[in-house]
Amino acid sequence: MSRRGAVLRRRLAAAVALAAALLGATACTSDGSDGSGGSGGSGGPKASPYRDGTLRVLASSELADLGPVLEGAKKATGVTVELTWSGTLDAAEQVASGTADGKYDAIWLSSNDYLRLRPGAAGKLSSETPVMSSPVALGVRPEAMARLGWKPEEVTWSAVHQAVAAGKLSYGMTDPVRSNSGFAALVSVASGLSGAQSALTEADVAKAAPQLKEFFTGQKLTSGSSGWLATAYAKRPDVDALVNYESVLLSMNRDDKAGLTVIRPRDGVVTAGYPLTLLTSAPAGARESGRALTGYLRGEAAQKAITEQTLRRPVAPGVAPAAALAADKRRELPFPGSLAVADGLLGSYENVLRRPSRTVYVLDTSGSMAGDRIKRLKAALTELTGTGSSGTGQRFRDREEVTLLPFGDGVKKVLTHVVEPGNPGSALDAIRGDVKSLDADGGTAVYGSLKAAYQHLGKGGADAFTSIVLMTDGESGDSAKEFESFYAGLPEAQKHTPVFAVLFGDSSRKELSRITELTGGRLFDATDGKGSLDGAFEEIRGYQ
Q: Which of 463, 132, 420, 148 has its CA nearest to residue 299?
């Protein structure tokens, strides 16, 4: 696949989570994120050729917690599961387009609902076997529960909306375009607030649009992965709740002592069924391995292990859910009835419903960036502009404020553009022109440039998701201590602006890790052999 094709696939959904390292006896690769949290990009690892006794699976990244279960499966069946992480929408694109043929033997996603909407997808699927389930839920801090006076069993999506609209509840949620849990959460909210009784339609979404707009004013945290979202949430006592899968929220209570009240809204939920689905293109040996694996996973021993270890719900009759899982039932909310409705809902979220973004790209254009490195930087940034008619996730969002802050010995320029709804092409053209004019000379004043980025963002009064993207190919030539002192003196609200740093060229992992840890950001690896620069920038989009 071409680099452009790979970029478009990633934009359709899938910057993947902070996937775990190798899962015991289970081999793992990454199509969008390596185990260290870096971007795999177009140069990332690929699925290996088929081998007898190995099942190559394109999987939702949250399945990293099934390592011990899959180790047990290998001992019992002889099947080694080789997982490649993906988001649901990205995987749907790969399967429907035929890219997955011969590369993977099966998919194991949170849901196949979106995939079924894709033309031609049905002919790619041989069989699907649900293995476990987890509904979308709301996890709320104790102080917010007390303030709202909620009884968990009585809360509805309408009640959540009313609390947000009244300014009494804020929350975090992953990006629906790039995260499985975010997409399921978006569908849950849209279906719950629209009152739809059957497949969600464009009319249902239009009816609920004013309420949805109000609902997303309460979103104060966004993320490309559930793992980073949970970490960021722990540092943000001003954010009251998280919208995520029930299993994720209960695991936070168990592992991190988060103390959340986990609410499955009374009027219904969207549930992840995690069907292990064999592809029609899989060789006969892989199909046999798949049948052996699903047989084991639906057995009593594996089902008990799954629910106890991952806090998902078992699907096999007679196996009791883990004690932390409430037994009362919830109605399954309707899913979009067509691809147009699903993609339209995603487009509305990106460009209309959610809070806009304000991002400063702090770009190393020092002398060491001359030649191939500056060319790669320009290409990566240009990819982010797409075109005025690009689809959801394929360009900077409507209403987004994009600032380029190139630096050498100091800040060279501060170039800001806002992507206007109805006329995005003007800003996108201007950004492309600014990128084209970047040149490489001077030193590497990382910390002074970061300081300038925070000062720039501090001048804006917009209610927006703010972030800083730092790309450098070397160690800084100015003072870290001076920047840390400056950061410590920022207003508390400004400290919530994370720095997402890109490891590139000869930059220092230690230095960049210190910056991301201080600011609550994350490090993305675009060094040779780890990932691509355009892949890192693409993945960061899920966090902005």
A: 132
Q: What is the 3-state secondary structure (H, E, C) of 40-80?
A: CHHHCCCCCCCCCCEEEEEEEHHHHHHHHHHHHHHHHHCCE
| Residue 367 and residue 409 in contact, taking contact as beta carbons nearer than 8 Å | no
How far apart (Å, rounded) are the C-alpha atoms in residues 516 and 514? 6
Number of domains the chain is built from: 3
Give bridge partners of residue 400 from the DSSP assignment: none
What DSSP line would sit under 353-365, residue for residue?
A: ISPPEEEEEEEE-
Q: Classify residue 149 as exposed, middle or buried by CB count within 10 Å of its CB (0-12, 13-18, 19+).
A: exposed
What confidence tens digit (pLDDT) does each residue in 269-304 have? 999 999 999 999 999 999 999 999 999 999 999 999
- CA 260 from centroid of its chain's CA atoms: 22
**Shared domain check, 282 and 257:** no
* Amino acid (1-letter code) at residue 498: P
3-state secondary structure of 148: helix
When computed from its CA atoms, the radius of gyration of the chain, rounded to whole angstroms, is 23
Which pLDDT score, from 0 to 100, does residue 111 have?
93
The answer on pLDDT for 530 being more than 70 is: no
Alpha-carbon separation of residue 304 from 74, 161, 246, 309, 381 (angstroms): 17, 36, 17, 8, 48
Q: Coil, strand, or helix at residue 314?
A: strand
**Three-state DSSP state, 35:** coil
> Which is nearest to 281 in space by CA: 96, 102, 53?
102
Give the Cα separation of 372 and 393 in Å (integer): 27
CA–CA gap between residue 380 and residue 154 (Å, rounded): 48
20 found inside a domain: yes
Give this prediction's pTM: 0.88
The SS3 assignment for 191 reads helix
Whole-angstrom CA distances from 418 to 64, 170, 400 are 38, 26, 6
Look up the CATH number of the domain holding residue 221. 3.40.190.10
Cα gap 98→95, rounded to integer Å: 5
Backbone angles phi, psi at 468, to 5 degrees: -125, 130
Domain shared by 32 and 94, yes or no: yes
* Inside any domain, residue 506: yes
Structural domain for 406, as ranges: 356-543
Structural contact between residues 89 and 65, judged by C-beta atoms closer than 8 angstroms: no
